[in-house]
Design brief:
Layout: E1 2-13, E2 17-28, E3 32-36, H1 43-51, E4 59-68, E5 71-72, H2 78-81, E6 89-92, H3 96-99, H4 106-116, H5 125-135, H6 141-146, H7 154-166, E7 172-176, H8 184-201, E8 204-209, H9 212-218, E9 221-226, E10 229-235, H10 236-242, H11 246-253, H12 273-284, H13 287-305, H14 311-327
Parallel strand pairs: 3-8, 3-9, 6-7, 7-8
Antiparallel strand pairs: 1-2, 1-4, 4-5, 9-10
Helix pairs in contact: 5-7, 7-8, 8-12, 12-13, 13-14
This protein binds adenosine-5'-triphosphate.
Residues 13, 19, 37, 39-45, 55-56, 59, 210 line the site of adenosine-5'-triphosphate.
């Protein structure tokens, strides 16, 4: 079911500088649609247009439509659509520090999420906040609630943002490069969290990234954007194997250790070792194996990047091979 529909959207700066040039795609319930393209291609501008957060008065939607279910979001007074933006459609950003207020505690900011939409959770606000923080797999939720953003790690801040974004049970979660500033292990965990939340709650996710490695890990559908235009669009598993556009192929070829056979429905995540570790964990629950493989994977990647591929790297390859057999992925 289509939840969010972007139809021939045009965003312009001033009168004649077109930044988004007639972009169309749909975001489906329970699916992740990745909007991918190089820096400056207009990805954030599309997300900001959906959220009515265009960063300058000179930037305007000059054509097309954005529909949430059967309602248009374009050209309606802000108060009419406040219940949709921020409530039914929520957003997380690359830098949670810029979205969180640095001088206010997490609890106060969480409170504002409920107050701004006049929502009183059945079980009470505090209980709901703790539940949401736990859902985002934050250790010791009561401590997090009493903390200020600067007292948390980058990964913890992003988890707090995700729990706030999920607080009102949105139909659509827009994630604008939420893992770019994180180390690879935390990145894999956050991607796993978003994927799990989406599966558990049936949320439609619009995920913005410049990294096709991330696309390969989480996307159901992909929209490839260049210079404000869609150059290719399709199902991730198909497109990763059969990209027609040169630019898409270029982006895919930048994925480390990529081979088209990785783009199978059974093993969409076989891109980097860290993600393999995550999948290992979710499918089999072998936490010890997860740690060992994780360390080996990291070491192997470091050595490979230094041009010193050696026994460690071979062991890493071996771990991947074992994983593939377990997942019964084609080799
Ligand atoms: N505040 C602004 N005023 C005018 N033009 C802007 C503004 N912000 C961005 N742009 C322009 O809009 C275009 C698209 O920017 P956008 O931020 O959407 O790109 P992006 O694909 O999200 O890139 P990145 O991954 O670097 O964030 C760029 O050419 C940029 O120069």
């Amino acid at each position: 079911m289509t939840v969010l529909s972007i139809n021939n959207l045009q965003v312009s700066y001033g009168m004649d500088s077109h930044i988004v040039k007639g972009v169309s795609f749909d975001v489906e319930k329970s699916k992740t649609t990745c909007l991918v393209g190089e820096s400056g291609s207009g990805k954030s501008m599309i997300a900001n247009a959906v959220m009515d957060l265009l960063p300058s008065k000179k930037l305007r939607i000059t054509g097309g439509d954005i529909r949430y279910h059967d309602q248009t979001l374009v050209g309606r007074p802000a108060r009419d659509i406040r219940a949709i933006r921020g409530r039914s459609i929520s957003m997380i950003f690359q830098d949670p520090m810029s979205a969180l207020n640095p001088v206010r505690g997490i609890r106060t900011q969480f409170d504002e999420v409920f107050s701004s939409h006049n929502i009183e959770p059945e079980q009470g606000r505090r209980a709901r906040m703790l539940e949401l923080l736990e859902l985002a797999r934050l250790p010791n939720p009561p401590r997090i609630l009493d903390a200020y953003p600067f007292e948390l790690s980058g990964g913890q801040r992003q988890r707090v943002m995700i729990s706030m974004a999920m607080a009102l049970n949105p139909d659509v979660l827009i994630a604008d490069e939420p893992t770019t500033a994180l180390d690879v292990t935390t990145q894999a965990q956050i991607l796993g969290l978003i994927r799990d939340l989406q599966r558990d709650f049936g949320t439609a996710v619009l995920f913005i990234t410049h990294d096709f490695g991330v696309v390969a890990q989480i996307a159901d559908d992909v929209v490839v954007l260049r210079h404000g235009e869609v150059v290719e669009h399709g199902q991730a598993a198909h497109l990763l194997k059969n990209a027609e556009n040169d630019y898409t192929r270029e982006l895919i070829s930048a994925i480390p250790n990529w081979h088209p056979r990785h783009a199978t429905p059974e093993a969409p995540a076989l891109v980097n070792a860290v993600d393999v570790v995550k999948t290992f964990h979710t499918k089999s629950g072998e936490v010890k194996a997860l740690d060992r493989v994780s360390l080996r994977a990291k070491r192997g990647r470091q050595l490979a990047s230094l041009g010193k591929a050696d026994r460690e790297s071979r062991r890493l390859q071996n771990a991947l091979w074992v994983w593939k057999r377990r997942m019964r992925a084609p080799s």
